[in-house]
Sequence to fold (722 residues):
Amino acid sequence: MKPKYILLFLCFSLISFFSTAQKENAQKTAIPDTLLIKDLNEVVVTAVRSKVPLKEIPASISIVNSDQLTTMSKTIATDEALRLVPGVRVDNGTGGSRVHLYIRGQGVLTESGFRGIGVMLDGIPLNDPAGFAPDLYDVDWATVSNVEIVKGLAASLYGAGTTSGVLNINTMDGGKKPVNGLLYMSAGSYGFWKVLGQVDGTEGNINYRVSYSHTQGHGYREHQAFRGDIFNEKLNWTPTPKIKITQLLSYTNYFNQNSEGINLGRYDTVGPRAANTDAVPYNEFHKTQRLTGALLGKFDFCNNQDIQVKVFARMNKYQETSNNGDDHKPFNQAGVSAQYDLHFGKENLKNHISVGADYSSKTMTEIEFGVPDGAHIDKNRVDSYFSEEVFDLDTILINQVIKQRSAGVFLIDKLDIARKLFATLNIRYDYIYNELVNNIPLPDSVVPPSGNRSFDSPSFRFGLTYSAAKFLNIYANYGTGFLVPTEDELYNNPAHWGGFNETIKPSKMYGGELGIRGDVGKKFYYDVAGFLVNSKDEFYRYSIPGRGNNTAFFGNIGASRRYGVETSLSYAPFDFLRFDVAYTYANCQYTSPDSVSGHFIPQCPEHVLAAEVAFKFLKHFTLALATQYQSKWYIQTDDSIYNQYTENGVKRNSWVNGFNIYNASLAYHFRLGGLDSEISLFAKNLFDEHYFGFTEPNNGPDYNSYQPAPGREFFASLRLRF
Fold:
């Protein structure tokens, strides 16, 4: 028998051994901290733009609770926070916070960040006006209370950037006492450490929370170091029971070196920790400094009417260096949202109507300086983990201003019929405008140096939910959406140097869901959803030789179909034992043109499984064992390499092998004086599996950039609350 199976057998035997004695203790002594299952009658979701009980929402929704968030090894990685959410895949190529995020196969093939997924942090969007989210640096997962994930065509709720779903991230409010505190420290493999301090509380009608954290690590690959500082301030003021005003302020300073993907030849000869040959000596890195302020207000006029208003402003300074240039992209963004809610009707027939509008604007000035070729850079100059040294020439490759504006109006109508049947209709219209002004004089033969593109479309979603019983909730929906190109995809113009890409157009989607969910006596919870989404004018990525710093271009390739089943199960037979399983089957294929019809969409594995068991024993200990499985996936859109490609004369398989890894954690809860304390130990990838975390398309002699995943890692953390 293999060692890893022996270890798993021993761990599960340990759980079985303690469970009998623990059951007897549980009957005698109440355990204050238990592993419970959510109750459909108690769970309220705000991601649908108002507070609605989960059992009444006709859509697949997953909720990440505080138990799952406090069992993260580093409290910085989105892939850990969303590990038990079916249908969601997170690619973490740095071990830090720079991630790619996909929901049901949407969001893949972006140059950086992700699109098609709306991200709300305490109600404020992290997306730009076109729906693109560059990162999740602003999220300090140690301060998050819960995450609501709405899957499927949610464009009718938040606009063109939410065609595959919405992440609604809610941070903690202050505690009940006037002054509370939290100190969190974590350290582990590859030079990682994090420290967080928080003060919070409630005084009269004011609730507050202030936190600061510093994170850094060397990364598990060469030239992959990262460090970040996050300051968060949140204040809730309730002058009367009918008025609540929330003020938010955050500052993020994040730096990470970019080791880039490597080809298989380099992986075979140098190993999984190798950086791309461009990363050094060019010292490729990303640096982000971001300040965001916001005001949110909710005003209740009477028992059945209220208004919600949100205003935010964001300043961002961004720098990205590479072998193509030193790119600076500072921008300012502002937005406002207003929503009116009306509730009326009788006990057996109630109507909830919301009407509102969203507006957002962004202005970015981009200047990119040229860099010398590798032969003219002293390769010994970049040898520190956090070096910000760059090698600029006097040549300016890009000098342009990009403006974006988006406006949307929406209507949400929810009808409650006899407390059993709930019908919801969302209707929305969006308009997105993009403008580019090129400030570099160009020859008359090179036109147009500037340009503009605008997109608009309506979208809708209709759904029904039937509460057959507490343990059986049936829901179904059908909707539409459209996904607009990001700014990078627009200003990387394949026809000219400068101007906007005139050939790319929005991708349109339509499809629906059918699902069931329920809970049985707070012991067992399930949610099973089947989905089907058809897309027209799918985006794809390609290269054009001889275009210098313009390395990635985007266009529309044809149609696709995505269908599958998502299953989420939680079972807590006792207060001290809980099992969680999240399984996704997804079939994502092109249906046209003929050259790629029947081919799988890149980066979309058919099978993804996450399972976890948590066991509390001897009153103070919690042991958790987990596994993650992912099947193989295809690497590229190009039809000519669907089954194999040639890399420098060597035949390569165009499919990336899947992986199966195991994780474990042990936490000890105790009182230290007046402090609630917790020490945790984590082991990730216990059996040191070598695999690729994800791949990026890269047309060329090697056709793909492979991102090796980390091997075995260990972390320890200390959490003190007062």
